[in-house]
Every structure is written in structure tokens, then in C-alpha cells.
Amino acid sequence: MITELGEGKYLLLTTFRKDGTPVPTPVWVVPGESDDVIYAWSARDTGKVKRIRRNGDVEIGPCDVRGNPKGASVKAHAALVDDDESDVVRSRISKKYGLFGWFTVFGSKLRRGRTGSVGIRITGAS
């Protein structure tokens, strides 16, 4: 199922606050190097990144651009990747989402620098 989610256009990534409150966010997603890995991308200073840093337990599912669910969600684990792997994720995002993806990634690099955004590695829950 995770592979199928990586092929979709948007992923509903639900992280959890300290009190357990779910916070769903639509993100761009790309397939990983194996069937059980997908990647998302975000600015480092966002709430979802801070929540993943604290607790990598997440839920993922298909959604539209506004975050409206388009299917069932599943439990997964998210982890932030290093700067070199984040470069690969940004490159895959640019390729998958075409000109709009390229402009978004390029604009992020201009505003935040190379390390201002981070790749998020998502695997199935263990």
C-alpha cells in the first residue's frame, strides 16, 4: 500500500501533538528506493517537522490538494533524513511535479537555503 501512496499526487500526512491531537497535512510525495519507502518534503521550521522529530508515529493516506481524504489511512513511521538525502528528495519532487515542482523547490532554496527544507522518509509501521 505504501508504494501506491508514493505514486499518488498528494499524501495526507497526519502527525500528532504531545496531547495526541492529530494534525493532518497534505504533502507532495515520491516513491522511495524500495516498495516499503516513500518520501515527502517540508520546510524545517514547520509544525509537522517538529512533531516528527519528537515522535515519528504518523498516519498516511491519499488525499486531494486541500487535504480531503480520498481513501483509508494507515499507520506508518516518519523520520527526517540528512541534507544529502534531502537533496535527492527535492530532486525527485522537482521531476515528479514538473515545472511547478521545480519552481517550488527552487523558491524554497532561495528563501531558506539548501538546508532550510528536509526530506521525510516514511515507512510502514512496525
Describe this structure as you would to a colleague.
The protein has 126 residues and is α+β, with helices and mostly antiparallel strands. It has one domain (2-124): Electron Transport, Fmn-binding Protein, Chain A (Pnp Oxidase, Chain A). The protein contains four helices and six strands, in the order H-E-E-E-H-E-E-H-H-E. It has a six-stranded antiparallel barrel with strand order 1-2-3-6-5-4. Helix 3 runs antiparallel to helix 4. The longest helix has 15 residues, at 98-112. It starts with a helix and ends with a strand. The relative contact order is 0.23. The model has no long low-confidence stretch (mean pLDDT 88).
Write the layout of secondary structure elements.
Elements: H1 2-7, E1 10-16, E2 22-31, E3 37-43, H2 47-54, E4 57-62, E5 74-80, H3 83-96, H4 98-112, E6 117-124
Antiparallel strand pairs: 1-2, 1-4, 2-3, 3-6, 4-5, 5-6
Helix pairs in contact: 3-4
